Amino acid sequence: MSATAAPVANSSGSVTNQAIQVLQGPYITNTYGGGIQCQGPTLNVTPYITGAASAQKPYEPYYNDPVYDVTDNFGAFDENGNPVGDGILDNPGDVIFYKKTRTGQKDNYNLSVGVSATWSRPLDSKLQEQCKEAAAANIALMQQQAANKRLDFEIARLKNCGELKKQGITFHPKSPYYSICADVVVRNVDTIPPHVHTIPSPAPVSRKAEDLGGPLQTTR
Question: Where are the domains of the chain?
Answer without folding.
Answer: 56-106
